[in-house]
Structures
1.
Amino acid sequence: MKIFDKWDVSGVTVNDLGLRNYITITPSLMPKSSGRFSKHQFYKSKMNIVERLITKMMVPGHKSKKHFLTSGRVVGRYITTYNIVRTAFDRIYEKTKKNPVEVLVRALENAAVREEIAGYQVGGIIVRRAVITSPQRRVDAALRVLVQATYKKAFGKKDTIVDALTNEIIATYNNDNQKSDAIKERERLEKEAEGAR
């Protein structure tokens, strides 16, 4: 069985040992679990990573506290987002000649932040310390930043959402901080954490 009846995932592995239990690459014809994993906490890790990308594309989330980038217009039919991701995978294959599922997994490994800042109160002041990010949060944050960057590049711009998603995944796969907002965000967070260590 292949994802989208095209892409074989038998040879795709997760190289980052910390993320291996949190990025699931199960073969399925149509990546849709119909909410099967939503009843239990942390069961989203058992969901296929392509399905997680599709559901995240439906609600990218808000960027910053003042709704600088809001995702209220995006919510819609699953099949619409499904077609966007499927077309983007075809274009990724055309540009890279590699399995798009493997390209997505490598992009998530590159975008996953390893350290970030946590603030806690000591006496009357708030102290910021560098903390190691949990694997579940690393995958969640990488997906969120990837999708928000895609949405930002397509909203009100000449590029379509398919072009923006394709370019963002390929740039993140190549670890290109000039073209990928996800890599920029990871470097910013890790630099902040290094300063607070």
2.
Amino acid sequence: MKLKIPSSNLLEEKIYLNALNIVFKNDFLKIYSSLLKYPSFITAFEEITKNAENKIDPFKEWEKLQKQNIDFIPYWEEEYPSLLKEIPSPPLGLYLKSEKYQRKDFSSFFSTYLPLAIVGTRKITLYGKRVLEKIISELVNQNVLVVSGLAYGVDAFSHQLCIKNNGITMAVLSSGVDQITPRGNYNIGREIEKNGFLISEYPLNTPSFKQYFPWRNRIISGLSRGTIVIEAPEKSGALITANFALEQNREVFALPGSIFNQSSLGCLRLIQNGAKLIISTNDILEEFDFQSPKTSLLKENKLSLLTEKEKEVYNILSSDYPTDFDQILKQVNFEAKEILTILSELEIKDLIKNFEGQYYKKD
């Protein structure tokens, strides 16, 4: 969907878009068809509300956001995630609530971290919990940003583990960010607010309507470069998120499980239909051309400790294509046996990869 950038009065356009969100909060799925035919959000508000009995004051509603330290980022502002602009129906704006971070942090996280969605069944098993404990600690260590929906089960447990491991997590709500839902996860939501971001496309005081759950899931997958499904029945909200991810041309990963466990059947179907089976975090990370700052620093440290001969051999190699051993032999004044020893050392240090015993490439 191609969204036009307002031509003028951008602050007012933002204020009026927030007011229009309030107008449609009880029937939000009609907002696209209702608004996009107007030349501006100011005009749309004036036309749509001209006969309304209960008048909304856009500027008073804007003050409410400011008093509660809730930010609103419309689609035309630079802090709006570029990943989200790629999806078929991007939210017209995002509400953010965080005690620790600001909008500039929200924007920067999508370039300095690898955003991945983690979703799954509400009835998480011990197996699912053990897998999450393992992979989230490892993903966080590789600067993965965890996106989920704060639902019971896999979502909530993923958020908790991310916070426990000092990672960054974002919860996309099916209500306003001032209405943490489900209520049973209120305390977890508050922890996310303190340590990450609560996100919604819905305005203040919007309750969690059942029909908003599936629509919310497109944002979870849209904010992420891939979606990981941890246990899901064959009819599951997690599978809706996975389907959105496929429509958005994103990677989908699924955890294998027993065919006798109803909570694994959805994942097994995803794998059967082409989702990548995961048994380790490497199965996830290798799909992305992403190197975390931690990984880069570790690599720099390894390179600084190389001997002069190791550096000479390493610098001959390319990171784009494998180099034949005979080519290396022609470019250095070392014996073949010594070169093989150096190449083995570089491979042990995870600085190069060996292909077919004769070709070498920078890792």
